[in-house]
Amino acid sequence: MTAFRLTAQHTDGDLALAHVAGELDVATAPELRAQALALIEQGHRHLILDLEAVTFCDSSGFNALVGIYRCAKTADGTLVLAAVPDRLGRLLDLTGLSTLLPAHPTSSHALVAHTRSQDSASA
Fold this sequence. Notes:
InterPro entries: Anti-sigma_ant, STAS_dom, STAS_dom_sf. Helix content is 45%, strand content 31%. By secondary structure, the chain is an alpha/beta fold. The protein has one domain (4-122): STAS domain (Transcription Regulator spoIIAA), CATH 3.30.750.24. Strands 1-2-3-4-5 form a 5-stranded mixed sheet. Helix 1 (29-41) runs parallel beside helix 2 (59-74). The radius of gyration is 13 Å and the shape is globular.
């Protein structure tokens, strides 16, 4: 069985920061999607997924990220990635999805960017 873990580290109002670890593949992608959608359903429509500890991602994992993005958008939210491994980052760039799934170098950067975007939206 493929190792995978999603840990919600920070939940604050409509924002959740979750760390994803392990392999994202055909065996784990449905669980990634289910756990992320559960966060959205709990009212955390803005998600930051820290992917630093992701060791592998195939097309199933990639599709799960797209599905999570769509569900967040439907909930009038966002999906932002942090600490994206090089291989996955190149795949996002090659497919053009990096324009839909913005990435930040670290979770901290993503949190600051989220705070700034919320501050400018309320101004």
